[in-house]
Records
---
Amino acid sequence: MPRIVVAGSLNMDLVMQSPRVPVLGETIPAGPFVTSHGGKGANQAVACSRMGASVAMMGRVGDDAFGSELRESLEREGVDVSAVLTTEGCSTGVASIVVVEGDNGILIAPGANGMLSPRDVRTAAPLFEGASCALFQLEVPVETVLDGLRLAKRAGARTILNPAPFMPLPDEAFALADFFIPNRIELEQFSGISGLAEGASALRSRGASGIVVTVGKEGAWIFGDAAPVLVRAPVVDAVDSTGAGDAFVAAFAVALAEGETLRDAVEMAVCSGALACTRFGAREGLPRRAEVDALAAVVKQKSPSS
Ligand code: RIB
C-alpha cells in the first residue's frame, strides 16, 4: 500500500446552491444549504485514503467545534492525524461556497490554516520518510509549503504541488515540485499568459518540470519533455465541480505511487475528477477506488489505443 503525506488546509465548507452569483448590494433567494467537511489539503488526504493509500496529514485547526469535527472526520476516513495540530484562540478555516449550475466560486477565511508553520512541518518531518508522494496546495503559508517541499524531497518522496489558490511563488517552488498541477486559471495567473502551451512553457523556464493542467470537463493537458498531450475526461452528469481538482490530484498521486506511467496516472485522475462532479459537496463527491477503476476500465475499452 503506497504511503502519502499531505500538508495543507482543513476547512468547514458552507455551501449554497444558487441560481446565480449576487452582485454587490443585492440579496437573492437561494438554497439548498449544507455544511460539509472540506479544505483542499484534507480533501486530498481523504481522496488518497479512499483510493487505497495509507495517508498522514499535516495541518492546523482552531480550538472550536469545527476543528474537532474536521479532525474526527479525517480519522474516520483512516487518515493519520497525529500531525494535525490545534491553535488555541483561533477559528478553524471556513470556506463559503456558491454553486451555480454545477460550477463553484469559493471564498476562504483561513483561520488556523494560516498558522501552519515551517516549524510544524519540520517537527512532523519523520512522516516523509518512506512516503512515495507528498502533496501540497496553497491554502497554508507559502514558506511552510516551501519547507515541506524541501523536506519531502530530501526524504526521497515525489513532490506534487497543486497551486490553489494562486499565491505568488519563488522560482524555487517550481523546481522543488516534481509535478505542478494548476487549473487553467491558475496557470494563467502564474505565467501571466493565456495560452496553455505558452503558459506551461513559461513555467518550465522558471524551473517547473512535469506540468499537468486541469481543464474542467475537457480533461487535463500534460506538458513535460515530450509533446503536449490532452487526456480527455469521461462525460458525466455533473452537479457540483467542488472538490474535483482534489479528487484529480489524489488519484494522480496514488497512481504514480503505484508505479503507473504519467499518462496512465492522468487517465486515472480525470476519471476520479469526473466522478467527483456527480455528487453535491466536496468531501461527499470524492470517489472510492472501485468506482474510479470501473470508470477507467470503461474509458479504456472505448478508446483502447489511448
Ligand atoms: O477544492 C475544494 C475545496 O476548496 C473546498 O473544500 C474548500 O474548503 C476550499 O478549500
Note: DSSP finds eleven helices and 13 strands in the chain.
---
Amino acid sequence: MASAGRKRKLIVQKYGGTSVGDIARMQNVAGRALAAQKAGNDVVLVVSAMSGETNRLLKLVNEITPRPSEREQDVVVATGEQVSVGLVAIAIQTQGGKATSFLGHQCRIVTDSTFSKARIQQIDGSRILDVVKQGHIAVVAGFQGVDEHGNITTLGRGGSDTTAVAIAAALEADACEIYTDVDGVYTTDPNVAPAARKLDRISYEEMLELASLGAKVLQIRSVEFAMKYRVPLWVKSSFSDDPGTLVCEEDATMEDLVVSGIALDRNEARISIRDVPDRPGVAAKIFGALDDKAIVVDLIVQNPPLGGKSDLTFTVGKADLTKAHDVVKKVSKELGAGDISTDQDIAKVSIVGVGMRNHSGVAARMFRTLSTEGINIMAISTSEIRVSCVIPSKYAELAVRALHTEFGLDQGAKKTKKAK
Ligand code: MG
C-alpha cells in the first residue's frame, strides 16, 4: 500500500484485551506507541476493551433477558472500548506525549445497521489525521461504529481487529500491527502440538482459511479487509520485541511449503439422515429449511443412492445442533426419509497451504497419515488450498500432531519439504 505521499510513515497499532488488561499494561502500550512515534512514525492506536470486560457487559445484559434488543445491547457493550481509549490516552499524556481518544462515531466509522455484527461501510479519516498531524497519537475505540441514523453499532466479537485494518486501509497506512498475547501466527495451536512453530509470513488467503477454521488470532473480517485493500498486516506480541508474522500477498517462496498450517475445529456437530429419497429437490428442501432458520451448514456428504434412497450427512455449529435437529426431523417426515442420528463428539482437522496448488497427492498423504494412526474419516471437504476431514473428537490432537510431522512443520524440520 502506498504511503499516500507522506514524509513520515503512518502505522496503525491495535492492542487486544489482554494487552490493555490492567493499568500497568496500558502504560506499556503507551510506551510502545511513543517509542514508535519517536522512531519517526505517525501512530494511530486501536484498542479493545480490557480483557473480560465485553463478557462482563454481555452477562449484565443477559441477567435482565436472554433476548435483549440488539440496539441496546450494543450501547452497553461498546462502553468497554470507551474506557480503554480514555485510559490509554491519559497514560500517553502522563508519559509526556500528546494523545486524543476517539469513539467510533467521533471518527465516523460508519457501519450498516446490523446490531452486534455490523459491517463497516466507510471511514472518514480526516479527524484522526488532523490530530496526528499535530503530533498526537490518535487512540481509536475498536469494535464500534455508528450507523447512518446515529445508532451505536458493534462489529462482532473480536471486531477490533477489523477496526484496525479498516482504519489502516482508509488512512492508507504503511502498516497495520495487531498486538496480541501470542508472538505471531503458528503452524498450529502450540497447546495441541508443542512442536508448532511461528510462521514468518503467511498469505492472506491462507490466513483467511485458518481464521475461518477457528484459529482465533485474527477476526475473519479483518483478514478479508486486509486482503481486499492489500494492507500489510503484522501479528505481534505486545509483551516482546519479536518481529511476529507478516500476513501479506502470496509470493513464489510460499509455495515451497506444501502445508503452512493445521487447524482444529471442535465446534461442529454431525447430523445424518438415512434413506433420503433420491429425487430432484430433496437437498434443496432440507438445506433450504436450515437456511430459513439461519443455520450455517459446513461439510455435506451424500452416499450414492441404493434402491432409490441415499444417506445424507452434514455438519453444523454445535450451538445450532438442537435447532437443526428439529428442522431436519420435520423435513424428513415430510420427505418420508428414515432415521436421524446426531454426534457431537467430532472434530474437523484441516491442512491449509497455497503450495497445494502445485503439489499433487496432498490429500492422499493426509488420508494415509490419519489411517496409519488408525483414525477413521467421517467426511471430507476440500478447496484449492485446504483439505478438511471430520474425525472422532478423541483423536483430534493425535491427528494434528501426526499431520504436523508428516508435512514437515515440526520445529527443526527442514522448512521446504516437498510432496513426494
Ligand atoms: Mg482478539
Note: The longest strand covers residues 268-277.
